[in-house]
Amino acid sequence: MSPHTIVRPLALLLLSSVVAVPARAQAPGAALPEAAVDSVRARYQEVQRILREGRRDSTVTPFESPGGEGSVTTHRADGRVRSLVVRFDGHGASWRTELVYWDDALLFGFRRWERFPPEGPTRASEDRWYVWEGRVLRWLRTEESGVRRTVTPTGPDFASSASAFLTSAACWWRFALGPGGAATC
Questions:
Q1: By C-alpha distance, which of 1, 2, 57, 6 is closest to 179?
Q2: Buried b (16+ CB within 10 A) or exposed e, 105-133
Q3: How far is CA 84 from CA 54, 74, 119, 124, 172, in A?
Q4: Are 58 and 73 in contact (CB under 8 A)?
Q5: How does pLDDT run across 38-93, given as a tens digit for each residue?
Q6: Is 0.85 topped by the overall pTM?
């Protein structure tokens, strides 16, 4: 184990019960701010370029949880956290979440869940969240069936899912940058 690796226990809790983070989702009927979504895309590409071409420092912090184990990889460049990659392998399922940051502010999130049922094929779903100034602007969901859809801000799932995502992202940020001890996400 390297000196940068710290094992921390982790209890997986319901995301909505961890920390109350208000989801500042679009107001019903408001036009989607395409310029902000375009800015998220442009900054995401810039972060990827910085990580690919620049001097990068990465730290892997493993964690254990009932039902499995995982790790958080923190990628830094230019003196800033640019990306957190959280992986979890459990009994019957695994997931990977990537959180991308611009000037220490959450910019984009990606999550892929894979389920391994005792009988039948592996099933997977994916989510992508575009974040601008602390609010989720757009949520793209790929269902286990393979159907991809944009969940509208006026949809019934948008506010609760945006809140759960922002809560989870804040928790993983604290876990990755924390001085040690237990964290729950």
A1: 6
A2: ebbbbbbebbeeeeeeeeeebbbbbbbbe
A3: 17, 5, 33, 21, 8
A4: yes
A5: 999 999 999 999 888 877 788 888 887 777 888 899 999 988 899 999 999 988 88
A6: no
